[in-house]
Amino acid sequence: MRVAILASPMRVFNPIPNDQHHGSGYRQMPLTRIIEDPSVRDSEHSYFIQAADAVAWACYQRYAPSKYVRQKGARNYFARLEPVLLKVATRRNQLAIVEL
């Protein structure tokens, strides 16, 4: 219920700061939908968190593979996600991984 109360005004007024490509100021981007309530919870209770955990693990293993991953040749698991990656995140990496 709390999310509904917080999200209600954001459906009308939701200023988002511009990035460097859009110049200074803000863009008006009202919420159109919320997939899941933002809350701290164990991943066993949320398929979305489980999916995010699996993608994060696969990405981490690409850069720092564990002994098991090296032995089994599973270092390229992240590459299997290529058909569903949002590649507009960055042009610097073929798999759209934003490296800091």
Kindly describe this structure.
By secondary structure, this protein is mainly α. The chain has two domains: 1-39, no CATH class; 43-100, no CATH class. It is 32% helix and 6% strand. It has a two-stranded antiparallel sheet. Strand 1 (15-17) and strand 2 (26-28) form a beta hairpin. The protein is flat, with a radius of gyration of 18 Å. The mean pLDDT is 81.
Features of this protein?
mainly alpha, two-stranded antiparallel sheet, single chain, 6% strand, 100 residues
Which descriptor suits the 3D outline? flat
Low-confidence stretches are none
Major sheet, described briefly? 2 strands, antiparallel
Radius of gyration: 18 Å
Order of helices and strands: HEEHH
Helix content: 25-40%
Helical stretch count?
3
- What is the CA-CA span between the terminal residues? 36 Å
- Can you tell me the number of structural domains? 2
Query: What's the total number of strands?
Result: 2
How does the helix and strand content classify structurally?
mainly alpha
Classify the beta-strand content into a percent band: 5-15%
Strand order of the largest sheet: 1-2
Summed over residues and divided by their number, the pLDDT gives a mean of: 81
Outline of the structure:
32% of the residues lie in helices and 6% in strands.
How would the blueprint of this fold be written?
Elements: H1 2-10, E1 15-17, E2 26-28, H2 47-63, H3 67-72
Antiparallel strand pairs: 1-2
